[in-house]
Design brief:
This protein is of the alpha+beta class. It contains five helices and 22 strands. The chain folds into three domains: about 15-60 and about 75-130, Nuclear Transport Factor 2, Chain: A; about 140-210, Carboxypeptidase-like, regulatory domain (Immunoglobulin-like, Sandwich), CATH 2.60.40.1120; about 210-325, no CATH class. The strands form six sheets. Strands 2, 3, 4, 5 and 6 form a five-stranded antiparallel β-sheet that branches. It is rod-shaped.
Length: about 325
């Protein structure tokens, strides 16, 4: 009877030992997987990919500096993370003081980059499982400027640019692209990649240019003005009309014979200057045809002269309206 009890007790003891060993193995497996310091990093990267800014901010335990928050959620955040590929979360490295560093290697547009996240042990769950959290920090800020414009597009989202500049709080890692694609003004896109909170990215500077649509609109108004000026000079039979062009002669010109026309219209150039847009001086050629009589000899001859002219204008643009005011000096 006693031997049977011994065998039973030994069986129970052996089972208990296997159970304890299994529990230890299970605890270690869990601590190296879902309870590892890599897990919050994976969850954070997934939140970026899904455009879940609130979740990402909570996981990162980051404060938001005074800045524009347009890049911290939704499609703008998804776009920033979408360009990240070949993500590899590395092995945690001890940093002392219950802190570890988790490296993440990845590529952006073919370039190999690394981001290092600092985490700390913040307690345990169910007595055995480690709990890891990001060491609190502040989000980095991306500066964007645009020449002579109060708006732009950042990661596909329209953003306000008061006085041509703004600062945006951003998550990392991520890539941010600024552009301007307006009807009258545009700028080539420019990109910046942020791989760490303490490695600031170069500012995104948009060099705005006038579009062909604006040049065509200004050119149309210049042509309208010059043609109207020539027609008015013909109606009033003026050699020196209120126009950029004129003809001077000491001879008598017969009324009804004066005919002005524009032979070369100015080439329009719109450029930034002093915080506004200006039209470069407009140079062209005008032809006058008329009949004249020499006051000394009485000889009658034909006038067929081409005159160079130049004038400046003031350009005003409000929404979709382009206004051009000629500035003539006499």
């Amino acid at each position: 009877m006693s031997q049977a009890l011994v065998r039973i007790a030994a069986g129970w003891l052996m089972g208990l030992m296997f159970a304890v060993a299994g529990s230890i193995v299970a605890v270690n497996v869990i601590n190296n997987s879902i309870a590892s310091p890599q897990q919050p990093v994976r969850e954070y990267l997934d939140a970026l990919k899904n455009g879940e800014g609130e979740k990402a901010l909570g996981l990162l335990r980051a404060s938001v500096p005074q800045s524009n928050a347009a890049m911290l959620d939704g499609s703008a955040l998804q776009t920033a993370a979408a360009r990240i590929g070949d993500v590899k979360v590395g092995t945690a490295e001890e940093r002392g003081g219950k802190q570890v560093m988790v490296p993440v290697d990845y590529t952006v547009n073919g370039s190999e980059l690394r981001t290092e996240f600092l985490l700390e042990r913040s307690g345990t769950e169910w007595l055995f499982f480690h709990k890891w959290s990001f060491v609190p920090s502040a989000l980095p800020v991306l500066d964007v400027t645009v020449v002579n414009a109060n708006e732009a597009t950042l990661n596909g989202v329209p953003v306000n640019m008061p006085n041509g500049r703004n600062a945006f709080a951003v998550f990392y890692p991520g890539e941010y692209e600024a552009s301007l694609n307006g009807e009258y003004f545009s700028a080539p896109s420019t990109r910046a990649t942020l791989s760490a909170r303490n490695v600031p990215a170069a500012p995104l500077n948009l060099m705005t240019q006038a579009t062909d649509a604006l040049k065509d609109a200004v050119g149309g108004k210049v042509k309208e003005f010059l043609d109207g000026c020539a027609d008015e000079a013909d109606k009033k039979q003026q050699l020196q009309p209120d126009c950029p062009f004129y003809h001077a002669t000491n001879n008598r010109v017969f009324d009804g014979t004066i005919d002005w026309s524009i032979t070369d219209y100015p080439v329009v150039k719109v450029e930034p200057f002093g915080g506004r847009w200006v039209v470069a001086p407009l140079d062209g050629k005008a032809r006058i045809k008329a009949r004249q009589q020499d006051l000394f000899t009485g000889a009658v001859t034909e006038i067929d002269a081409v005159h160079d002219f130049s004038f400046t204008t003031r350009l005003d643009i409000e929404a979709d309206t382009v206004k051009l005011t000629p500035l003539l000096s006499y």
